[in-house]
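User: structure tokens for this one?
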Amino acid sequence: MSVPQFDTLIEIFEHSTKTHSSRQLFSTKRNGAWEWLSYAEFGKLVDGMRGGLEGLQLRKGDAVAIISNNRVEWAVAAYGTYGLGGVFVPMYEAQQVKEWEFILRDCDAKLLFVSTKAILDKALPLLDKLPKLEGIVCMEPGAASSDSRVHTYDALVRSEPAKIEHVEKSDVAGLIYTSGTTGNPKGVILTHHNLSSNVSAIHAIFPMSPDDRSLSFLPWAHSFGQTLELHGLFSMGSSVAVCEGVDKILDNLLEVQPTLLFSVPRIFNRLYAAVQKQLASKPAPIQALVRTALGAATKRREGKAVGLFEQIALGLANKLVFSKVRARFGGRLRYAFSGGAAISKEVAEFIDGIGVTVFEGYGLTETSPIATANYPGGQKLGSVGKAIPHVRIWIDTAATDGRADSALKEGEIVIYGPNVMRGYHNRAEENAAAFTDDGGFRSGDMGYLDPQGYLVITGRIKEQYKLENGKYVAPAPLEEQFKLSPFIANIMVYGDNKLYNVALIVAAEAPLKEWATSNGLTGKSLDELIKEPSVRVLYKEQLDRYGEAFKGFESVRDFALITSDFTNENGMLTPKMSLKRRTVVDVYGDLLASLYKA
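Assistant:
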């Protein structure tokens, strides 16, 4: 069977709407029922949208921005824009107005789509502040405005179809703005070929088919969700149900019964913590059975011999425990794709062990995003896989300023391939620093290639800090491991130029209050609980347990408990949930400093 090779997103659109016209594409839950839209119906909506955008004088190269969570209208607006040779620029509903304004100004957006009347009301003043912005399209049915510059989605899709503009593979398809953990976001320029080459690579290595279905909750405004799920599954003839919201993921999984799941580690961590909690309440023989079965599953995955007793344990555990866990995913899940951050090996082995194959990959917005991936016949848990077709990884051991492990040949990960962005929009200085002389993209991540060619990520160069003893600490992997504790909602490890590491821990309210009730601390608020000596003992035990595999200098010596989480709203998280360390230190600097006082 030949593997499709796409040069543009237009080719994907024309291929899929023709080849899979009668199949289900998108589903949205309305009035308690899931309503499906076929590929042909989606194609007609895009045709109408293209005509509507042409009527608003959108021309090749013009930028169209959108502020919306995932929804069918998002995909229609995107492919309508691509069809006229426009540049699509997604933003997040959770971003602040000042961030929307910066992005709209930076990309010279001509038109803005918004999802709701509430966002329309916030965005309307931008029409007078941004001379290049000519109009806003509201996607919420029935939303109206007396401003003639405001249009409705429904009116646009009812327009007469416009001819598809010819686009070259080198033409820009979109700008995706990075989260900006240390300043204003940067617009990553991605061409049609950048994105479509990633889609072609998915066809070459991943076992997906028109019979597959996903539940979409990763934002399409981020490259991981957009490329793999929106463009990738669309190209496969697969179907996509749009999740009602993060709080509805488990309910929607049961209803939609996906075969594929694209997620970031925190979703897998949440499931892992819930199952571990349930297992802890089971009789000792059941717990022993699960441990034996998971060990047998690991042996089988690694190609080692599995004994008769282990085979029996695996079969029994599958019937009594694992099948019930899979049922929480809807019962049909075959593959889970993890990206966006490193998944704990412990969690990956558990998910894989219960019968859902985990494929972890690596990449950045700047690489469209996939650069490496685990795939059938090429899977090693603990790694982020091998380079995808037509991509090459080089480790620059000279770029890490003495921070790297020379024995592992560790260094900065440099990526070559058709997936590498054209550059950052309006950022000449950053572009000069981002590329090697021969066109490789400097990722800013540290890692190494093992003898079999699997890439292992060891940290982010800019996030690393040096202790007073000269040892470098990469905090993010440590934090991800600590967050496996059910009592830790969030955490930041800190120690730049200090004698040792400390941590700022956000206490997980429900588990802590349940523990408190069982330990005679009833009727106390969360703020009161975190001051209790026995609670501090509990959290010290959690740090010791989940950090037992850390190197000595990586251990956390002291900690402070807080009750307010890091969020988008308080500016401590980016829209893709990355920690803004500088902001956290600005807010909690005195508390962190107090942990170093004798």
